[in-house]
Design a protein that fits this description.
Layout (H helix, E strand, L loop, with lengths): L7 H16 L3 H13 L1 H32 L1 H25 L15 H13 L2 H10 L11 H25 L1 H10 L1 H27 L1
Helix pairs in contact: 1-7, 1-9, 2-3, 2-5, 2-7, 2-8, 3-4, 3-5, 3-7, 4-6, 4-9
């Protein structure tokens, strides 16, 4: 296996976490589905492309920044992972206590340009502090503090996140009407997604904390 590709167990765990994150309603999903409803599928896909471009930027910054941190201080990198575990617990708690926010715009309006929609998707991704913190704390859970190939693995996982997210989010944009109606009429479905999200990320937080305690 290539040195920058994590082991199979790590890939499977990351795939599960990505799937749960992708199907959980949030600001990005609200934007994609809302633009598809109000301006058409092309606008929805343009926003989705912008947000995925933001993920590339986040991943690159995390991989480069953490590589410098690993060289400077493995202890600091481990501290970041411990802080990340706490942040994952906080996200899980937020999902259970406050639930998902999903209120897309539905009124028809004159379409914006695809580039403008792309910029909107990029902006909502890059300027969302929760996403910045999430990638800073989420990706390091899947690499070892002593792994010399950690930066490459971080970047690989970021690209894997995009590859796994597209087949999940794209159908939501295509079926925007039905998807939005389902979430509005079935609060039980969104609560199930919230609890799945909370359970998976609590498990990852527990994993990193117990590993550190050994």
């Amino acid at each position: 296996m290539l040195p920058f590709v994590p082991d199979v167990s790590t890939l499977l765990q990351f795939a599960v976490a990505t799937f749960i994150l992708a199907i959980t309603p949030g600001p990005d999903m609200t934007l994609f589905v809302g633009r598809a409803l109000s301006e058409g599928r092309a606008a929805g896909f343009a926003c989705m492309s912008g947000a995925l471009s933001g993920i590339v930027i986040h991943t690159s910054l995390v991989a480069l920044g953490l590589s410098a941190l690993i060289v400077a201080s493995p202890q600091a990198f481990m501290a970041l992972k411990i802080a990340g575990a706490g942040y994952l617990v906080w996200l899980a708690w937020q999902a259970v206590t406050k639930g998902s926010a999903f209120s897309p715009e539905t009124g028809k309006r004159a379409p914006r340009s695809l580039f403008r929609n792309w910029l909107t998707g990029l902006g909502i991704n890059l300027l969302n502090p929760k996403i910045v913190l999430f990638f800073m704390t989420f990706l390091p859970q899947f690499v070892s503090v002593h792994d010399p190939h950690a930066p490459g693995k971080l970047f690989f996982l970021g690209m894997m996140f995009i590859a796994l997210s597209i087949p999940i989010t794209a159908p939501m944009v295509v079926a925007a009407d039905g998807f939005a109606a389902m979430l509005r009429s079935s609060p039980r479905v969104t609560r199930i997604l919230d609890y799945l999200f909370a359970g998976v990320f609590s498990a990852f937080a527990l994993k990193i904390l117990t590993a550190h305690a050994k």
